[in-house]
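TL;DR need structure tokens for one chain.
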Amino acid sequence: MAAPRWLALATLVIFSASAYAEDHAMQVWLNPGVLTHHFREGDFREDNYGIGAEVVIAPEHALLAGTFINSDRERSRYAGYYWRPWEWKPGGVSVKPGLVVAFFDGYSNTNHGHWFPAAFPSVSAEYGIFGVNLALVSNPKNGAALALQLKLQVW
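>> reply
TL;DR here they are.
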């Protein structure tokens, strides 16, 4: 129950901060889930299909939400915030490293499938309407995984 209240408060703070980014148009990116590579041996699902959205409200701030079939073959949902404080543009590609702070559910081996917080490093690369997010995600039971998310800008 605390997760939705925290997210509502974080959303209000982020939207207030976005007022300072008047010259930045909001962007909406959609993704078909995530592909993962686990560093621990096990019978993990590596193609975690689903649907997700990333709403960039200012160059350094994005809100995330979505659902996917997780590595344990269970339905998960997530909602979070992506802080991307740096940017480089090698060859016209926008590269933005940062930190994701989010809530997840659906992992029966973590908090009995209920919502739990997670924070992990991530980097996004965008060129035109195409992009990718690459993250190093850790799970107490499954170990670490490298996660790749393809995305398409729709607005």
